[in-house]
TrEMBL record:
One Pfam family cited in the UniProt record for this chain: Methyltransf_21
Residues annotated as transmembrane: none
Organism: Candidatus Aramenus sulfurataquae
Domain named Methyltransferase FkbM: residues: 8-158
CDD domains with a match to the protein in the record: AdoMet_MTases (cd02440)
Protein name: Methyltransferase FkbM domain-containing protein
Length: 182
């Protein structure tokens, strides 16, 4: 990823954008919809002096531009398992993948850990057009089997893999890596 651009959907407290920047990414565009978690991510990026590499955006991501309601505060210990349902006391924008692709020059890596938005993005967005995609699927939240997501990506020219085993039923949640076939 050295000197490449990364899009991080579900930045949480900023740990993954910081990882990508430290590994040499030229630019990281990171999205986090929960305002209180986004604020912690901003502080973590500043703490690591990476403001010139990482751009954090307080927004959700979906197949279409829009707005969604989220809670203004959330317990950080629960932020990694929080599913955005559209209920809350503050509105944040939702960026479409098409809009995000217009914000980057180099569509190298798309990372999604967004507690369910991955199904909407993969199934309903126009051509993905990233060299690599890493996502955590949440079939237990979306009721979309991960094989349906990988089948869609394979139809778009990706080779997908479930790189490791976990003790949780892989049909409920898991990480998938995909790479565009040459």
């Amino acid at each position: 990823m050295k000197d490449r651009e990364v899009v991080d959907v579900g930045a949480n407290i900023g740990d993954s954008p910081i990882y990508f920047a430290i590994r040499g990414a030229k630019k990281v565009l990171a999205f986090e919809p929960l305002p209180s978690v986004y604020q912690v991510a901003l502080e973590n990026v500043k703490l690591n002096n990476l403001e010139n590499v990482i751009t954090l955006i307080n927004a959700g991501v979906g197949s279409k531009d829009g707005v969604i309601k989220v809670p203004s505060t959330i317990d950080l210990d629960k932020s990694g398992v929080f599913h955005v349902t559209g209920e809350g006391d503050v509105e944040v924008p939702v960026y479409s993948l098409k809009r995000i692709r217009e914000m980057v020059k180099d569509t190298y890596l798309l990372k999604m850990d967004c507690e369910g938005c991955e199904a909407d993005v993969i199934l309903n967005s126009e051509e993905m057009d990233f060299e690599k995609i890493i996502f955590e699927h949440h079939a237990s939240l979306t009721h979309v089997p991960y094989k349906r997501l990988t089948r869609k990506l394979e139809e778009e020219g990706y080779a997908c893999d479930k790189p490791w085993q976990i003790l949780v039923d892989p049909n409920r949640v898991g990480v998938i890596t995909c790479e565009k076939r040459r």
